[in-house]
Amino acid sequence: QVKLVESGGGSVQAGGSLRLSCVVSGNTYVMYRLAWFRQVPGKEREGVATIYPANGGWTIYADSVKGRFAISQDTAKNTLYLQMNTLKPEDTAMYYCAADGDGGSWSDPNDFAHWGQGTQVTVSA
Q1: % of the chain at pLDDT higher than 70
Q2: Which of 17, 112, 121, 124 places its Cα 20 to 30 Å from the Cα of 11?
Q3: Residue 101 gets which letter from DSSP?
Q4: What is each CA distance from 99 to 8, 9, 32, 50, in whole angstroms?
Q5: 3-class secondary structure per residue, 33-78
Q6: What is the reported pLDDT for 65?
């Protein structure tokens, strides 16, 4: 059974930084495609960043976070990270990590089979 557990969320002022972590346990074949999504109440879940560890660590980002966020992963620790810098109030959301064992969309939540429980990020002005 695959389990994803996020941590690192919290409250921060605009311009600050946070680093989210997501530990993957169980069958780690799902670490073929790893992603961070976020969601605010009343809106659809939005793709933030995706990494493909088996493809040389290729990454892709939403335009809204390019240059501010960085996704990475530590294979030895089975852990996914999201370094978030220069945070803005509009980054406030519940952040989820996601994993899948096959290739697919980087930003379609329906294309990821495994999810964490989420960690809240709140950015105040």
Answers
A1: 100
A2: 112
A3: S
A4: 18, 19, 7, 9
A5: EEEEEEECCCCCCEEEEEEEHHHCCEEEECCCCCCCEEEEEEHHHC
A6: 98
